[in-house]
Protein backbone atom coordinates (compact mmCIF):
# COMPACT_ATOMS: atom_id res chain seq x y z
CA UNK A 1 0.00 0.00 0.00
CA UNK A 2 1.54 3.31 -1.10
CA UNK A 3 -0.96 5.78 0.42
CA UNK A 4 -0.81 7.51 -2.98
CA UNK A 5 2.83 8.42 -2.38
CA UNK A 6 5.45 7.52 -4.98
CA UNK A 7 8.94 6.28 -4.14
CA UNK A 8 10.15 9.75 -5.05
CA UNK A 9 7.69 11.23 -2.55
CA UNK A 10 8.91 8.93 0.22
CA UNK A 11 12.52 9.84 -0.54
CA UNK A 12 11.70 13.54 -0.51
CA UNK A 13 9.78 13.26 2.76
CA UNK A 14 12.57 11.27 4.41
CA UNK A 15 14.99 14.07 3.50
CA UNK A 16 12.75 16.63 5.20
CA UNK A 17 11.13 18.00 2.07
CA UNK A 18 7.54 17.29 3.11
CA UNK A 19 4.58 19.61 2.67
CA UNK A 20 3.54 20.74 6.15
CA UNK A 21 0.09 21.66 4.79
CA UNK A 22 -0.57 18.07 3.69
CA UNK A 23 -2.03 15.73 6.35
CA UNK A 24 -0.88 12.74 4.30
CA UNK A 25 2.71 13.91 4.02
CA UNK A 26 2.84 14.96 7.67
CA UNK A 27 1.54 11.52 8.71
CA UNK A 28 4.15 9.88 6.50
CA UNK A 29 6.90 12.06 7.97
CA UNK A 30 5.91 11.25 11.55
CA UNK A 31 5.62 7.56 10.66
CA UNK A 32 9.15 7.52 9.29
CA UNK A 33 10.40 9.35 12.39
CA UNK A 34 8.57 7.14 14.88
CA UNK A 35 9.76 3.99 13.16
CA UNK A 36 13.43 4.88 13.06
CA UNK A 37 15.05 8.12 14.07
CA UNK A 38 13.01 8.46 17.28
CA UNK A 39 14.20 5.05 18.45
CA UNK A 40 17.81 6.06 17.77
CA UNK A 41 17.19 9.35 19.55
CA UNK A 42 15.96 7.52 22.66
CA UNK A 43 19.14 5.46 22.79
CA UNK A 44 21.37 8.50 22.27
CA UNK A 45 19.87 10.46 25.10
CA UNK A 46 21.52 13.86 25.59
CA UNK A 47 24.06 13.46 22.79
CA UNK A 48 24.52 13.39 19.04
CA UNK A 49 25.96 10.71 16.76
CA UNK A 50 27.62 11.36 13.44
CA UNK A 51 25.99 8.36 11.79
CA UNK A 52 22.89 7.82 9.70
CA UNK A 53 20.07 5.51 10.70
CA UNK A 54 21.11 3.17 7.88
CA UNK A 55 24.66 2.99 9.26
CA UNK A 56 23.38 2.21 12.75
CA UNK A 57 21.09 -0.53 11.45
CA UNK A 58 23.89 -2.01 9.33
CA UNK A 59 26.21 -2.13 12.33
CA UNK A 60 23.47 -3.70 14.43
CA UNK A 61 22.82 -6.33 11.76
CA UNK A 62 26.48 -7.29 11.80
CA UNK A 63 26.42 -7.58 15.59
CA UNK A 64 23.25 -9.70 15.58
CA UNK A 65 24.06 -11.80 12.51
CA UNK A 66 24.07 -14.94 14.65
CA UNK A 67 20.36 -14.45 15.34
CA UNK A 68 19.32 -14.57 11.69
CA UNK A 69 17.10 -17.52 10.79
CA UNK A 70 17.69 -19.04 7.37
CA UNK A 71 14.73 -19.92 5.16
CA UNK A 72 14.56 -22.90 2.85
CA UNK A 73 14.78 -22.11 -0.87
CA UNK A 74 12.43 -23.47 -3.53
CA UNK A 75 14.95 -26.19 -4.41
CA UNK A 76 15.34 -27.10 -0.74
CA UNK A 77 11.59 -27.50 -0.39
CA UNK A 78 11.31 -29.54 -3.57
CA UNK A 79 13.94 -31.96 -2.26
CA UNK A 80 11.90 -32.49 0.90
CA UNK A 81 8.66 -32.99 -1.02
CA UNK A 82 10.36 -35.46 -3.36
CA UNK A 83 11.68 -37.39 -0.38
CA UNK A 84 8.24 -37.54 1.24
CA UNK A 85 6.71 -38.88 -1.97
CA UNK A 86 9.51 -41.38 -2.48
CA UNK A 87 9.17 -42.75 1.06
CA UNK A 88 5.38 -42.56 1.28
CA UNK A 89 5.64 -40.19 4.22
CA UNK A 90 3.00 -37.61 5.09
CA UNK A 91 4.11 -34.00 4.67
CA UNK A 92 2.36 -30.75 5.54
CA UNK A 93 3.51 -27.54 3.86
CA UNK A 94 1.45 -24.64 5.21
CA UNK A 95 1.80 -20.90 4.77
CA UNK A 96 1.10 -18.01 7.13
CA UNK A 97 0.04 -14.73 5.55
CA UNK A 98 -1.65 -11.78 7.21
CA UNK A 99 -4.97 -13.65 7.44
CA UNK A 100 -3.51 -16.58 9.35
CA UNK A 101 -1.40 -14.32 11.53
CA UNK A 102 -4.27 -12.02 12.46
CA UNK A 103 -6.38 -15.08 13.30
CA UNK A 104 -3.56 -16.28 15.56
CA UNK A 105 -3.29 -12.82 17.12
CA UNK A 106 -6.80 -12.96 18.62
CA UNK A 107 -6.54 -12.53 22.39
CA UNK A 108 -2.85 -13.44 22.26
CA UNK A 109 -0.75 -10.51 21.05
CA UNK A 110 -3.78 -8.41 20.07
CA UNK A 111 -7.26 -8.18 21.49
CA UNK A 112 -10.08 -9.68 19.45
CA UNK A 113 -11.44 -6.18 18.96
CA UNK A 114 -8.12 -4.98 17.53
CA UNK A 115 -8.08 -7.91 15.13
CA UNK A 116 -11.63 -7.19 13.99
CA UNK A 117 -10.68 -3.58 13.33
CA UNK A 118 -7.53 -4.57 11.44
CA UNK A 119 -9.11 -7.39 9.41
CA UNK A 120 -12.81 -6.86 8.64
CA UNK A 121 -12.09 -8.76 5.41
CA UNK A 122 -11.01 -11.96 7.16
CA UNK A 123 -14.28 -13.75 6.36
CA UNK A 124 -13.15 -13.78 2.72
CA UNK A 125 -10.29 -16.05 3.81
CA UNK A 126 -12.56 -18.43 5.71
CA UNK A 127 -12.68 -17.05 9.27
CA UNK A 128 -15.58 -15.10 10.73
CA UNK A 129 -14.34 -13.10 13.72
CA UNK A 130 -14.17 -13.62 16.59
CA UNK A 131 -13.10 -17.25 16.28
CA UNK A 132 -10.77 -18.46 19.00
CA UNK A 133 -11.33 -22.06 17.92
CA UNK A 134 -9.82 -21.18 14.54
CA UNK A 135 -6.88 -19.59 16.34
CA UNK A 136 -6.26 -22.76 18.33
CA UNK A 137 -6.55 -24.93 15.21
CA UNK A 138 -3.87 -22.83 13.53
CA UNK A 139 -1.59 -23.22 16.55
CA UNK A 140 -2.06 -26.98 16.26
CA UNK A 141 -1.44 -26.88 12.51
CA UNK A 142 1.81 -24.99 13.04
CA UNK A 143 3.05 -27.42 15.66
CA UNK A 144 2.36 -30.43 13.41
CA UNK A 145 3.58 -28.92 10.14
CA UNK A 146 6.71 -30.19 8.46
CA UNK A 147 7.35 -26.83 6.84
CA UNK A 148 5.83 -23.40 7.39
CA UNK A 149 5.97 -20.47 4.99
CA UNK A 150 6.27 -17.14 6.80
CA UNK A 151 6.39 -13.53 5.56
CA UNK A 152 9.81 -11.97 5.05
CA UNK A 153 8.28 -8.47 5.03
CA UNK A 154 8.56 -6.89 8.47
CA UNK A 155 5.34 -4.89 8.02
CA UNK A 156 3.43 -4.93 11.31
CA UNK A 157 0.82 -7.48 10.16
CA UNK A 158 3.36 -9.73 8.42
CA UNK A 159 6.82 -10.75 9.61
CA UNK A 160 6.82 -8.58 12.70
CA UNK A 161 3.48 -10.03 13.80
CA UNK A 162 4.73 -13.58 13.19
CA UNK A 163 7.73 -12.97 15.47
CA UNK A 164 5.48 -11.61 18.22
CA UNK A 165 3.14 -14.60 17.92
CA UNK A 166 6.05 -17.06 17.91
CA UNK A 167 7.37 -15.48 21.11
CA UNK A 168 3.92 -15.60 22.71
CA UNK A 169 3.51 -19.32 22.01
CA UNK A 170 7.18 -20.09 22.77
CA UNK A 171 7.77 -21.59 19.33
CA UNK A 172 11.43 -22.50 18.78
CA UNK A 173 11.53 -21.02 15.30
CA UNK A 174 15.33 -21.03 15.18
CA UNK A 175 15.25 -24.84 15.02
CA UNK A 176 12.14 -25.23 12.85
CA UNK A 177 11.93 -25.68 9.08
CA UNK A 178 10.75 -22.35 7.67
CA UNK A 179 10.45 -20.94 4.19
CA UNK A 180 8.80 -17.94 2.51
CA UNK A 181 5.04 -17.49 2.67
CA UNK A 182 5.09 -17.23 -1.14
CA UNK A 183 6.91 -20.55 -1.57
CA UNK A 184 3.95 -21.80 -3.63
CA UNK A 185 4.79 -19.20 -6.28
CA UNK A 186 8.54 -19.64 -5.88
CA UNK A 187 8.26 -23.35 -6.68
CA UNK A 188 6.06 -22.51 -9.68
CA UNK A 189 8.59 -20.01 -11.03
CA UNK A 190 11.86 -21.76 -10.15
CA UNK A 191 11.13 -25.51 -10.40
CA UNK A 192 8.97 -28.04 -12.22
CA UNK A 193 7.74 -29.78 -9.06
CA UNK A 194 4.05 -29.25 -9.85
CA UNK A 195 4.44 -30.65 -13.36
CA UNK A 196 6.25 -33.70 -11.99
CA UNK A 197 3.61 -34.26 -9.32
CA UNK A 198 0.83 -34.01 -11.87
CA UNK A 199 2.66 -36.36 -14.21
CA UNK A 200 3.79 -39.03 -11.75
CA UNK A 201 1.37 -38.96 -8.82
CA UNK A 202 -2.34 -39.01 -8.09
CA UNK A 203 -3.39 -35.47 -7.15
CA UNK A 204 -6.50 -34.28 -5.30
CA UNK A 205 -7.59 -30.65 -5.59
CA UNK A 206 -9.26 -28.95 -2.62
CA UNK A 207 -10.79 -25.47 -2.49
CA UNK A 208 -13.33 -23.18 -4.09
CA UNK A 209 -11.35 -22.99 -7.34
CA UNK A 210 -10.75 -26.74 -7.43
CA UNK A 211 -13.33 -27.55 -10.11
CA UNK A 212 -12.15 -24.87 -12.54
CA UNK A 213 -8.53 -25.75 -11.75
CA UNK A 214 -9.30 -29.40 -12.53
CA UNK A 215 -10.74 -28.38 -15.89
CA UNK A 216 -7.77 -26.14 -16.69
CA UNK A 217 -5.23 -28.83 -15.82
CA UNK A 218 -7.03 -31.37 -17.97
CA UNK A 219 -7.00 -28.89 -20.85
CA UNK A 220 -3.24 -28.52 -20.36
CA UNK A 221 -2.73 -32.24 -20.69
CA UNK A 222 -2.54 -33.34 -17.07
CA UNK A 223 -4.71 -36.39 -16.46
CA UNK A 224 -3.59 -37.56 -13.01
CA UNK A 225 -6.02 -35.40 -11.01
CA UNK A 226 -8.33 -37.86 -9.24
CA UNK A 227 -10.97 -35.35 -8.16
CA UNK A 228 -11.80 -32.02 -6.58
CA UNK A 229 -13.51 -30.99 -3.34
CA UNK A 230 -14.89 -27.50 -2.60
CA UNK A 231 -14.14 -25.82 0.72
CA UNK A 232 -15.87 -22.84 2.29
CA UNK A 233 -14.62 -21.62 5.64
CA UNK A 234 -13.49 -23.27 8.84
CA UNK A 235 -16.84 -25.01 9.30
CA UNK A 236 -16.31 -26.96 6.08
CA UNK A 237 -13.11 -28.67 7.29
CA UNK A 238 -14.73 -31.84 8.72
CA UNK A 239 -16.73 -32.35 5.53
CA UNK A 240 -13.68 -31.81 3.32
CA UNK A 241 -11.67 -34.34 5.30
CA UNK A 242 -14.53 -36.84 5.17
CA UNK A 243 -14.95 -36.39 1.40
CA UNK A 244 -11.22 -36.84 0.85
CA UNK A 245 -11.55 -40.43 2.11
CA UNK A 246 -13.39 -41.21 -1.11
CA UNK A 247 -10.27 -40.62 -3.20
CA UNK A 248 -7.04 -42.53 -3.70
CA UNK A 249 -4.37 -39.84 -3.92
CA UNK A 250 -0.74 -39.10 -3.08
CA UNK A 251 -0.71 -35.30 -3.16
CA UNK A 252 -3.29 -32.66 -2.29
CA UNK A 253 -3.17 -29.12 -3.64
CA UNK A 254 -5.18 -27.24 -1.01
CA UNK A 255 -6.36 -23.74 -1.95
CA UNK A 256 -8.90 -23.05 0.79
CA UNK A 257 -7.79 -19.84 2.47
CA UNK A 258 -7.02 -20.08 6.17
CA UNK A 259 -8.65 -23.54 6.53
CA UNK A 260 -5.94 -24.91 4.20
CA UNK A 261 -3.47 -25.01 7.09
CA UNK A 262 -5.76 -27.25 9.13
CA UNK A 263 -6.70 -29.47 6.19
CA UNK A 264 -3.02 -30.01 5.35
CA UNK A 265 -2.29 -30.89 8.96
CA UNK A 266 -4.79 -33.79 8.98
CA UNK A 267 -4.00 -35.05 5.48
CA UNK A 268 -0.38 -35.33 6.58
CA UNK A 269 -1.46 -37.71 9.35
CA UNK A 270 -2.94 -39.96 6.65
CA UNK A 271 0.41 -40.20 4.91
CA UNK A 272 -0.43 -37.66 2.21
CA UNK A 273 1.71 -34.82 0.91
CA UNK A 274 -0.43 -31.73 1.42
CA UNK A 275 0.54 -28.35 -0.02
CA UNK A 276 -1.08 -25.03 0.87
CA UNK A 277 -1.52 -24.00 -2.77
CA UNK A 278 -3.07 -20.58 -2.18
CA UNK A 279 -4.03 -18.15 -4.96
CA UNK A 280 -1.78 -20.00 -7.37
CA UNK A 281 -4.87 -22.14 -7.94
CA UNK A 282 -6.84 -19.10 -9.14
CA UNK A 283 -4.06 -18.03 -11.49
CA UNK A 284 -3.90 -21.47 -13.06
CA UNK A 285 -7.67 -21.87 -13.18
CA UNK A 286 -8.25 -18.60 -15.04
CA UNK A 287 -5.22 -19.16 -17.29
CA UNK A 288 -3.30 -16.15 -16.09
CA UNK A 289 -0.63 -18.75 -15.29
CA UNK A 290 0.13 -21.99 -17.06
CA UNK A 291 1.97 -25.17 -16.11
CA UNK A 292 3.74 -26.38 -19.23
CA UNK A 293 3.83 -30.12 -19.71
CA UNK A 294 7.54 -30.88 -19.48
Keywords:
49% helix; 7 strands; 294 residues; seven-stranded parallel sheet
Structural features, described:
The protein is elongated and about 70 Å long. A 7-stranded parallel sheet has the order 3-2-1-7-6-4-5, with helices on both faces. β2, α8 (159-168) and β3 form a beta-alpha-beta unit. The chain has helices spanning 7-14, 23-44, 53-63, 74-87, 98-105, 112-118, 132-144, 159-168, 183-190, 193-200, 210-219, 237-244, 259-269, 280-285, and strands at 91-95, 147-150, 178-180, 203-207, 225-229, 251-255, 273-276. It has 294 residues and is an alpha/beta fold. α4 packs across α9 (183-190).
Q: Characterize the biggest β-sheet.
A: 7 strands, parallel
Number of strands: 7
Q: Tell me, briefly, the overall form.
A: elongated
Q: Characterize the quaternary organization of these chains.
A: single chain
- Numbering strands along the chain, what is their spatial order in the largest sheet? 3-2-1-7-6-4-5
What structural category characterises the helix and strand content? alpha/beta
Amino acid sequence: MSLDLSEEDWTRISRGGFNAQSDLEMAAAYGLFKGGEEILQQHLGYSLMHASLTEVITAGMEELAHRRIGLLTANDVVARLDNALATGTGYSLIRFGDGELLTLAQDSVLTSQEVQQAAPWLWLSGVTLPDLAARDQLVDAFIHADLVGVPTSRFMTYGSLFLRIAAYYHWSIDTMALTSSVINYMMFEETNIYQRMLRRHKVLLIGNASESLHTALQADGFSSVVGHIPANGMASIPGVLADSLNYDFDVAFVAAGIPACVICRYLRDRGKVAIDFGHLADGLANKQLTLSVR
